[in-house]
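Form 12-C: Joint structure prediction
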Amino acid sequence: MSQHDRTHHATIATGKGDPQCFKGTAGPAKFKVGDRVRIKNLPDIFYTRCQVYTRGAVGVVAVVTHESPAPEDEAWGHVDQSEWFYIVRFKQKDLWPEYPTNFPNDTLQTEFSERWLESV
Amino acid sequence: MSNDHDHDHDHGHGHKPPAPMVEEISDFEALEIAVRELAIEKGLFSAEDHRRFTEFAEHIGPTPAARMVAKAWLDPEYKKQCLTDAIKASFAVGVDWLNPTGFGTPSDYTDLRVLEDTPTMHHVVVCTLCSCYPRPILGFQPEWYRTPNYRRRLVRWPRQVLAEFGLTLPAEVEVRVEDSNQKCRFIVMPMRPAGTEGWTEDQLTEIVTRDCLIGVALPKPGMTTNIPLPVHKPAKPAHH
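Section 2 - Result
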């Protein structure tokens, strides 16, 4: 057998689901629904799920979703430290300066782990 | 060999060379095969496990998700459950997200969210990272959902991309793009269209197509298939 525990992740998720298997491991959530947040522009060498088009933009927390290790850690098998995740809602015109002005209500939502957000 | 002859005569025998068995294989397909063979070699799973899982994954279609929407249209209590605990609501349409394969492990991330359309709000789903998709309840992604073209343009020009699918929405309807890039998975719950009064759950299920569940189409009576996408022949096709 291999010396690497490659099925560790599947084993802890069995019967609970992922991200449910990380429930209760992140401590209190820093943000709540309605909070205004700015997406930080952190270094993202090797792997991230924080899209560049959201960096620096300001949005509103729409849903506090679940706890999980951040993908930047999980990609390397580091699952000891969990974070809260948030679906953040942006006005399209705050993401794309050239977004057509005749559709001012259009929005976009996407999800971030807590490390990417700062209060505005 | 002379360049004066046209292509068909260049091979000297009056016929074209045999077509290759596999015309094209992407880097990711090659990578998948390599990883799969290594995993089998190391005993993480057997070739038999892989065959069973592939067969399982390929037979799922969008029907469970369509039925979920149809049930929710008919039953306000069930609709509430879909919007608050979609994993639990999935049981009613025969999908157990935690053990969909019978192999004891979830096949995907298991935080399903249902996005409810209203008269003033239309949702559409994309994954700009690659192709995150609620497979246990919706089956495999259509090819266009995985293309960089759809992914990079939908977030930026959603109305134009929707118009290419034949869906034009008035300015007073908010178009909300959901970029599914973490562990949440999404389906759209469109509004029940007019002209379906008195319909049964089975009838309603038929018009909730995969495209409606992604949000690039709206259900309507008589429309039971996905939108046929226009195929443009290449002006300068590649030669093999």
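Section 3 - Comments
Strands of chain B lie at 111-116, 121-126, 174-179, 184-189. Chain B touches chain A at residues 42-44, 87, 97-99, 104-106, 109-111, 113, 128-129, 155-156, 158-159, 171-172, 174-184 (CB under 8 Å).
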